[in-house]
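Person: I keep going back and forth on a fold encoding question. Show me how you would write down a chain together with its backbone fold. Please set it down just below, with no commentary around it:
Helper:
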Amino acid sequence: MNATYIQNSIAQLKTEIFMDVRHRTLQKYTGVPVLDENQLFYLLIPFLNGEEWQQEQQEAAITVGIVYAALAAHDHIKELDATSKEQQLTVLAGDFYSGRYYEILAMSGNVALIRNLSQGIVARCENQIKVYENKQRTMEQWYTSMSTIESGLIAQFFDLYSFSEYIPLIEKSLLILRLEKEWTAYQRGQMSLMGKALEESVRRNGATFNSVIQGKIVHLKTELSQIINQASFLQSDIKQALHAHVEASIASTNG
C-alpha cells in the first residue's frame, strides 16, 4: 500500500459523501460540505488495514462523514453575523445534511448505528457546551473534551463494527492534530472557544500556553508511537502510514 492508494480511498469516500448530500442552491452559496481529510483517513484505517469491510461498513462510514459535515456546517457559523444569506444558508446546509443522515439511517434500518451515532452526537455537543458553562475545568478535562469532539463519532463507529482496538490510535492522533491547530491559531490570535478555555486553565496553573501545549503534543506523540509499534494487528505499511500521517499533517498545519 502506498500514499496514492490511501489518498484515492479518502477521495472516493469524499465523493460518495458529496453525492449523498449534493444540493445545487446550497453548493452555490456555501460550497461543498466541509470534510476533514484527517478524520476520513482515521475512519478508513480498519479498511486500509485489511479488516472485513462490506457494503454495510462503507455505507456506515459515509453516514459518519455526513454527520461530521452537518456538525462542521453549524460550527462554521459566525457568532456575530448570522444574518447574511450565506450564513443563513450555512445553517440550512447543516440542517439539510442532518436530515440526509437521518433519512439514510432510517432507510437502512441499522438501529445499532443509529444508537451509536446518536450517543456520539450527544457526547460531542455536551462537550462543546462546556465552554459556555461557568465552571472551571482542568487542562486534562479540556483535553478529554477535545478528544471526544474530534474522534468520538469514529470511536462509536469502530465500537459497533468490532474495531475497538483502533480507538486509542485515532483518539491520540486526532487530539494531537487538534492541539496543533489550537497552537497555530494561538499564534494568530484566532483560537476557538475551547482553545481559549484551555488557555485560561493553563494560566491558572501559572504556566505558558506554548510550553504546555508543545509538551502535551510531544507526550502524546511518544504514547502514540508506542501504541503503533506494539499493535500486532497493524500491518507494517499501515504503521508507517500512521507515523507519517501525523508528521505530515503537523508540518502542513505549521506551514
